[in-house]
Amino acid sequence: MIPEPDLEFVEDTWFPALTPLHDHWFRVELHGGERIPADGPTMIVANHSGNLPVDALMAQLSLHRASGRLMRLLAGDVAFSLPIVSELATMVGAVRASRDAAGDLLRAGEMVGVFPEGYRGLGKPYTERYQLQAFGRGGFAATALRHGATIVPVAITGAEEIYPQLGAVFRGSALLGAEGMKTSNIGRAEGAAPVDEALESLVLGVADVLAEGASTPLKDLPAWLVGAEGAAERKVLLELVRDVVLSVARGLGIPYIPTTPFFPWLGVAGAVPLPSKWRIDVLDPIDPRDWAEGYRGGFMEDPAPGAGGGVPGPVALHDDPVSVLGLSGEVKGRIQSTLLKNLRDRRSAFY
């Protein structure tokens, strides 16, 4: 059973905490908020970017202001891997992403927030900014068709610039293992020891190096750090650090570790998001069943009732690949077109 959000906490603590970031740091502008249905099963489908899911939080606040409805975010496994974050996510209405969870929420008439690009969109390089990644296999479209939920496409402009990703320390199968990438994008790192063993090895390795160099004059330390004298020791320490990183990632299900102009070089300070100017556009709602029937009927015909010859009967739209993939592509296309228009019209990412 899906836990209910703590609405008192959301109204009195969560949204007020997000307000300074929303109103004064990112200066979010919402357009088309009146298009959000006042009630009934609703699926908000948006683009995803920024390395951390800040866009989901800003959208949750913006759409709540416009509609009075709480967007129940479908979150990845990472959000439920950390004790404090997991509890907070549950309190503000997030649920672990799955078709079953989305279906339960829609049957209850909730507004569900979906980011079909997932980690592919969240962690794409800055050179690919505002280029939408694959919308999975159309799972959100099949779910909306099954439950008759109104789809509301949402385009978020500005989040790409908060953490410009220059590269990644580890990414994909190097971090999660090939099988983890094949199954769910969240898995287990190959070749990494349990985190407690990895940390123990790192501590002992650092202790050994310090013990061996205890008699080394302080003036010789720079040579050890960058010169040939300490090359072997540095290599060992780097391997131990790498094993710790992989072990932590394995435990938390982190799919990549990004590098930006400021992170990890400036430490915690490098995690402060850049103050880009945001615009959130709520696009025209889509009745998924009406759209899919019209789309499918344009070039396919269901057999007449009672047709012989072993001809199968009409397929359910949510099981029809033509309907599902067509609807998914339509939503993606509308969002991509809006993003490109906004990029042409804006003066700067930070104005």
Automatic annotation (TrEMBL):
UniProt entry keywords in alphabetical sequence: Acyltransferase, Transferase
Residue spans crossing the bilayer: none
Record InterPro entries: Plipid/glycerol_acylTrfase (IPR002123)
SUPFAM superfamilies linked: Glycerol-3-phosphate (1)-acyltransferase
Presence of the UniProt keyword Acyltransferase in the record: yes
Domain Phospholipid/glycerol acyltransferase stretches: 42-159
Top-level taxon of origin: Bacteria
Record carries keyword Acyltransferase: yes
GO terms assigned for molecular function: acyltransferase activity
PANTHER family registered for this protein in UniProt: MONOACYLGLYCEROL_DIACYLGLYCEROL O-ACYLTRANSFERASE, TRANSMEMBRANE PROTEIN 68
Protein name in UniProt: Lysophospholipid acyltransferase family protein
Species this protein is from: Corynebacterium hansenii
Organism taxonomic ancestry: Bacteria, Bacillati, Actinomycetota, Actinomycetes, Mycobacteriales
